[in-house]
Amino acid sequence: MLIAIMTILFLGGSGVFGPIAFVDEAIDNARIAISDDDHRKATVAELKAINKRSKEYMKTVKGLGKDLNSYFSEHEVANEEIEAAWTSIFELNDEYSRDIIEMRFELRDQLSREEWQALFPAEGNSES
Questions:
Q1: Domains, in order of start, for the chain
Q2: What tens digit of pLDDT does each residue of 71-123 get?
Q3: For residues 52 and 20, what is the distance between their CA atoms, to the nearest angstrom?
Q4: What does the alpha-carbon distance between residue 6 and residue 94 come to, in Å, rounded to a whole number?
Q5: Biggest distance spanned by C-alpha atoms of the chain
């Protein structure tokens, strides 16, 4: 059961990779919506930094998941070892989440309300 849960978490079942889904679209939107060249470049750079941080996190989590899955499937594991593994996973996730939130606030501070809405349009937004 533990192996199944960890496999789901590490190999695609987790929802913490969400920032990657919006970054490419936001970069495309920035290239259209922001006319000032320097401002656009700074915005795209921040979006690329968010994307890079997300990819680093994904790589680390997948590697950790594979390592733990292999270890747990080959050994009798004490509850303390399981708790330590989950603690490290949760700490990694917490650090990533805090980084992404901070990076989004930094990005938001660089943009006007209109620019933010252009980069991240709300789905189903019927304003015209």
A1: 17-119 (1.20.120)
A2: 777 667 777 877 787 788 888 889 999 999 999 999 999 999 999 999 998 85
A3: 9
A4: 17
A5: 61
H helical segments located in 1-128: 2-8, 18-33, 37-74, 79-110, 113-119
N- to C-terminal Cα distance for the chain?
A: 51
Other beta carbons within 10 angstroms of residue 10's beta carbon come to 20
**Over the stretch 6-31, which tens digit does the pLDDT of each residue have?**
554 555 444 455 566 789 899 999 99
Report which of 4, 19, 10, 3 is spatially closest to residue 88, judged by C-alpha positions. Answer: 10
Determine if the pTM surpasses 0.90: no
Q: What angle do CA 48, 13, 52 make, to 5 degrees?
A: 10
Task: At 81, list the tokens.
Answer: 């070892």
